[in-house]
Amino acid sequence: DADVTQTPRNRITKTGKRIMLECSQTKGHDRMYWYRQDPGLGLRLIYYSFDVKDINKGEISDGYSVSRQAQAKFSLSLESAIPNQTALYFCATSRDSQTFSYNEQFFGPGTRLTVL
Amino acid sequence: AQSVTQLGSHVSVSEGALVLLRCNYSSSVPPYLFWYVQYPNQGLQLLLKYTSAATLVKGINGFEAEFKKSETSFHLTKPSAHMSDAAEYFCAVSGVGNNDMRFGAGTRLTVKP
User: Fold this and answer.
1) What is the pLDDT of residue B98?
2) Rounded Cα gap, residues A111 and A108, in angstroms
3) What three-state secondary structure class fits A92?
């Protein structure tokens, strides 16, 4: 069983369309993250959430929004998709680092998004 | 703030040869350092992590990395490459609290028969 799941796994959409990527986890972690991966750029943080009531912008949040519906669910939305948002998107989770001094992040399988 | 530089976007080795993937970091606080591996069409999987304990860290699949503060480096090595090691490898750095993990650009490892 996958601990961090993402839906859909692949999506092709058109410029201007609204799209939502979903992430669910069964690890019981408080913290959740959304990254995008582009060739040659590695992973860049879009948004992160420390709990249901705490949402924070990451390095590249413009053009994106998020919703933390429950501890286990964290969704990423593109309100009006544009071609340069074509990328591989990853959701990740980690434990609360106030309790644990360090936290590895656990990644979902990714969503490949193409915006035409 | 933290940052990571991975030297070499693509490394190619022969099966059985030494694997060396380079990572240098910058951090204003004592760092935590990680190596992740990404196999094709999969998410990232943790290989190993440095969290201020032993400077030589052993990970899964025979990989290890050494934290060298004087050189601000955390290079990944494996004595003998296997075909199954072909993947993309990411170095990452964070500070206390881990709300700002920064990844390197990645190094794609190719293993030739």
Assistant:
1) 55
2) 9
3) strand
Q: Which of residues 35-64 of A touch B (CB under 8 A)?
A: 35, 40-45, 48, 50, 56
Measure the CA–CA gap between A105 and A58, rounded to whole angstroms: 15
Handedness of CA B69, B70, B74, B77 (dihedral sign): negative
Q: Would you tell me how many other CB atoms lie within 10 Å of the CB of residue A99?
A: 8
The sign of the dihedral angle between the CA atoms of A111, A85, A87, A113 is positive
Given pLDDT bands bounded at 50, 70 and 90, which one contains residue B100? confident
Let me know: does A93 contact A28? Beta carbons within 8 Å.
no
> B70 and chain A: CB distance < 8 Å anywhere?
no
**Whole-number Å distance between alpha carbons of A41 and B4:** 11
- Using the 8-state DSSP alphabet, how is residue B82 labeled? -
Tell me whether B106 touches chain A (CB under 8 Å): yes
Inter-chain touch B43–A90, beta carbons under 8 Å: yes
Distance CA B19, CA B85 (A): 9
Q: For residue B34, which phi and psi values (nearest 5 degrees)? A: -140, 150
Length of chain A: 116
Contact assignment for A108 to B46 by CB distance below 8 Å: no
pLDDT of residue A101: 55
Contacts of A99 (CB under 8 A, 6+ apart): none
